[in-house]
Amino acid sequence: MAASDPANRANAHAPVFAVGASAGGIAALQKLVATLPAHLPFALVVLQHLPPDRESRLADLIAKWTRIPVYRTTDGMQPEIDCIYVPSSGSILTLEEGLFRTRPVEGGCRRPGIDTIDAFLESLALHPARPAVGVVLSGTGMDGAAGAVCLRQAGGIVIIQDPLTAMYDGMPTAILHRGLHDHVLPVSAIAQQLVACADPAYVRPVRSTGWTSPAAASLGRVVQHIQQQVGFDLSGYKPSPLLWRIQQRMDTRKVWSFEDYASLIEDDPVELESLMRGIPIHVTEFFRDGQAWTVLLDDVLLPLVDDYAGQEPIRVWTSACSSGEEAYSVAMLLDEAARERGKAVNFQVFGTDAAPELVARASRGIFSESALAGLSDERRARYFYRTDGAYRVKRALRQKIVFAPHDLLADPPFADLDLVTCRNLLIYLKPETARDVLHALHRALRTGGCLFLGRSEPYPLDQQDFLAVSRLWNIHRKVRAAPDARESAAPRKRPAAAGAANLAVLRTAQEQANIPSVLIDDECTVLRIYGNTETILKLPAGEPTLKLTDLVPRQWSAHLRLSVRDALNERKPLVLTQLFDRATGDTSMAVRLTPLDTPADARCMRILVSFIRDPDAPDTLAGRDMHADLTGDAALDVDASEQANISREELEASREELQALNEELSASNDELSRSNDDLNEANTRLQDHVVQLAMQSRVLLAGSIMTIFLDRELKVRWFTPSMRDVLPLAPADIGRSIADLVPKFSDLNFYTDIATVLDSGAARHAIVANDEGRSFLRKTFPYVSETGAVAGVAITFADITDRTRAEVALRRNQAWLSAQKEAFQSAMNGRPLDSSLGILIRSLVSQADDKRRCAFYIAEGDVLNHVVGMSDAYARCVAGFRISTESLACGLAVATGRPVVTRDVLDEPRWRAWTWLAKRFGYRGCWSFPVETSEGTLVGSLAMYFEEPRMPSELDIELAAAFTHTAGIIIWRHLQMQDTQPLH
């Protein structure tokens, strides 16, 4: 059963359990749902990866596996116990304030089919009803791991399918390796465990091991190295999210040992930078959690504006501001509050973050159109203007905000603030570190100032000198100063590593020994310098700048700027050669541009620029340093005669060698010229082939040809757009296994034929049909490489629906015509009436595929009598049925001369006195058609009975008309024969 709105069952905040699955998860879901009890003490949400452009049929499938009501979720629906909910494939489902919320995937930070489970589990962790349980079944990738972190931190329960029983173990293994699970079970045991978790007496199993494993030791080594090299202290962060972020980088770099990865970041500064960019959790958007901002405006900002007396500005601090959206949101609300009250209000917003490049990006105030999707047109027009395909914050608002680097865990806080926001940070910190941060934020507020933590931070502050303004959104007001001991507590110091001086010297030596390099962002701003770049980068006259394009030689600027953009767009390294070298005065310099891996939202794009000299070129800096060392008497000891010790013979030999090399070079140039001509000719031929292939590709793509090509590993390599009619394909499916896709047609031999073609090389074909009644001719044939080996298979589908339907209709028409002819011949030969009409009955029943029953009745006076079709018991029950306009079914059809169609006899008032008959003989639908002669005399009726309610199609009407016409002729002849019988 699938419906749009559940019946109103129970409490406002029902316990919600979630089950997520991806590749190979359908079979696991079927087994789990089939083993659920008849009644659930919780609401169950089933999440499955599907492309957003493909409608999910999961709700219909689950409804076949269980009697528990199954509903498709809609925005604003309230979850109820004893129900199963399935979201749409085109939206991201979350649970907010006890209601389901669905958001389109376009333009959001969530990716459909990749973050579906994480998004819901993270929102489930905030659901007030307990327990909250998450189940992760078979699937590839790591969706569910981030959600499991949030769920465990909120006290929820995580269950995973035993990876040994999963068709694809990627998702359960990702949680297992991170130690986030409470239970590892085969699918057959998960339903029983869900019921146990819903019991108030449930006790979470005690973990047998803690953070004493080798992974924990490696984590400490990584944290220490980051602290020494970057100066960022991660010791206060919880181990689970840190280990998860490190595991993501390990998966990307294909490093399977934590110890090996710790060694990698010590040797590879590029990987260290990539890891550091992935560790901070930057979850931000304009006015995230809109209701929270409404409460903040009404209960905090408007009172601040009302009480503003004009002496000191209103001071707001947005800590951990990421790319600045939250700081700009506060500034916009303050400006709107001042406009609403009609007051000139001076305010200052401070936005800080530990990452300097994020602060620099926030300070620029440039945002993409998708980032502003949640803003109203009025706010967009008031506070932004369009430039270069993006939106920039207007100067009037930008001047109200100060952005600066600041590490909340180590640097001293601001002071005398009216409002501090700190959202989505404390949940990632250890409890003792979070307490230190809260104390620092407390000190930063003036008495009466407010702290806005947001709903995701599980820290009640009622007992910590705060008074709740909104418990739901964790907004609190400071009501008194803290005790002296707490107020005087110093900020956390960055732990000094042992031998700090030696490490600093070592680091300087390493940087000067390495290839000179600089780390820049996507706008060419220098973030860090490695090695000695003294002879490469020069600070120009005028206003100081950190733009790399201003620091390099002028000849490089334009080329370097375009190359940086190309390297970031293509996500691959580029090398620029033959660049002017200031040190040597020639073109012996090369520059390598290495883009660093960026997160999904691409907030912090970076690129490492390395300057590489020709090893044979003179190093003027080294020469200058050496000359500086030759001072005093040592310089006088250089004998002038030793400087002219090259003999004439040696010079002559060098000249001859140079001449030989020159002749060899000339010959090489001639050969290169010929090779170049050959290359140009080959390139011309290649271009012709490319044009031909492009034309052929356009023909294939423009038509309705359905073709897909698989390699020997059954991975999709190419397909035409029309293949989407039979398989849920998208461009991102290139390289995906065909087994991961759920066909839209029924074909038991699909995978068997593919394997047969790969093994034998013989083509296979079959006729298949989909759920919409369309028929296809499927051909599978081998793709043979130039060596004669089978390199894959090509599969084509041809739509033969019209042909198939025409063939079926032709066969039916021929059968019906044959039956009518046979019935006429039977009547002409004087066979009994029931025998002739029985031929028509058998044809009507055999050519239909709906298990219908048919019968003919003959009019005798003002009553009807059964002739043939139904059982003798039924014939006795209806014998002598009245022909009247007050009758029903056949009696009414003969009385009026019009067909009488009853879709469901149980819903028809006329049938109330006769429903016993329908129930006894097992039918619900009843159609009656009058039988009349060519002269218009009504002589009987044709009745059709169906087990389920049903209305006739056009074909049914045409068929009834043809057979009643034939029956009319046969009955008329029968009556004529009775009238001409001699009297005895």
From TrEMBL:
Keywords, alphabetical: Chemotaxis, Coiled coil, Hydrolase
Protein name, per record: Two-component system CheB/CheR fusion protein
Top-level lineage group: Bacteria
Coiled coil (UniProt feature): 641-689
The keyword Acetylation is assigned to this record: no
Active-site residues from the entry: 22, 49, 143
Domain CheR-type methyltransferase: 217-457
Presence of the UniProt keyword Hydrolase in the record: yes
Cited InterPro entries: Bact_Chemotaxis_MeTrfase (IPR050903), CheB_C (IPR035909), CheR_C (IPR022642), CheR_MeTrfase (IPR000780), CheR_N (IPR022641), GAF (IPR003018), GAF-like_dom_sf (IPR029016), PAS-like_dom_sf (IPR035965)
CheB-type methylesterase domain sequence ranges: 10-201
Alphabetized SMART domains for the sequence: GAF, MeTrc
